[in-house]
Design brief:
Blueprint lengths: L20 E7 L3 E7 L3 E7 L6 E7 L9 H6 L11 E3 L5 E8 L4 E2 L7 H8 L11 H10 L12 E3 L2 E4 L5 E5 L6 E6 L3 E7 L15 E7 L12 H17 L18
Antiparallel strand pairs: 1-13, 2-12, 3-11, 3-13, 4-8, 4-12, 5-6, 6-11, 7-8, 9-10
Length: 266
């Protein structure tokens, strides 16, 4: 249940005034949440007890047919493992959000979330109101609150349960980090944010044991003033994002990064 108003949250992040908070909520294991947030919002996801798994989907709030694309999120920065500085990209070549802080280092962009068949086979149930709800079932409810349907659910990324690729291509769980680990995202566009806090598909625990997730968000538009990466592919994606935002908001100051050569294709 979210705290209303968010400014009533008793422990805002260090250096953040409580009146800047726009979202404050604790999401139990096996539950979901969602929110529409402005460009320049900074989100902190915190693994309170060390066994949360925050499955995440992002959609443009003004054009929800544009949403996170995990393949491009891995391909553009040439990095399969999410960490600080990693862009979360859309299927239109724009940066939806950037990971700007990470004390966990245990995340996944390869496995997606769980489905009802797999959870039923592993835990005995996977329906949304069961003791072991599947991520896709939770996302379906969260998406419906924003006019989205099951067909609108792409592959998701997840935080606080790491996966590594072995030399033979096998995917191996490396579990979570310590209790209290957090990750922060900076939004480059107004977004619909869907979060399902449920077990990772490769979670080795025989019982469903996902623990609570803390979600805080606050206005931090000033953080957009610096380009998050000098890599040309990432740079181009930021410019694509700012071009789209500038077209809808003429006269608004954008990132001051150096432009690419005029007419050069991405």
């Amino acid at each position: 249940m979210p705290v209303l108003p968010a400014s009533a949250w008793p422990t805002p992040p260090e250096g953040v005034a409580s009146d800047r908070l726009t979202w404050a909520e604790t999401v139990p294991g096996g539950r979901y949440t969602s929110k529409v947030l402005a460009r320049g919002t900074r989100i902190r996801l915190r693994d309170i007890d060390g066994a949360a798994c925050a499955n995440l989907l992002l959609y443009r709030a003004d054009a929800p047919w544009e949403r996170i694309n995990v393949a491009d999120t891995v391909k553009v920065p040439w990095q399969a493992y999410i960490g600080a500085g990693h862009p979360l990209l859309s299927d239109a070549g724009r940066v939806l959000a950037t990971v700007v802080a990470d004390t966990s280092g245990r995340h996944d962009a390869l496995c997606g979330t769980t489905n009802i068949a797999a959870n039923t086979a592993k835990y005995g149930a996977g329906a949304v109101h069961s003791a072991s709800p599947a991520g896709r079932e939770l996302f379906t409810l969260a998406a419906a609150k924003h006019g989205l349907e099951p067909r609108d659910l792409p592959a998701s990324v997840s935080f606080f349960h790491g996966v590594r690729v072995e030399s033979d291509g096998a995917l191996t769980s490396i579990g979570g980090a310590a209790a209290g680990a957090y990750v922060e995202l900076l939004l480059h566009l107004p977004l619909i944010v869907l979060i399902a806090n449920t077990a990772h598909p490769l979670d080795p625990a025989p019982e469903f044991s996902t623990s609570a997730l803390e979600v805080l968000a606050w206005s931090a538009a000033e953080n957009l003033d610096s380009l998050p990466s000098a890599d040309p592919e990432h740079h181009r994606a930021v410019l694509n994002t700012d071009d789209a935002w500038g077209a809808l908001n003429p006269g608004v100051a954008l990132n001051p990064g150096v432009a690419l050569n005029p007419g050069k294709d991405s």
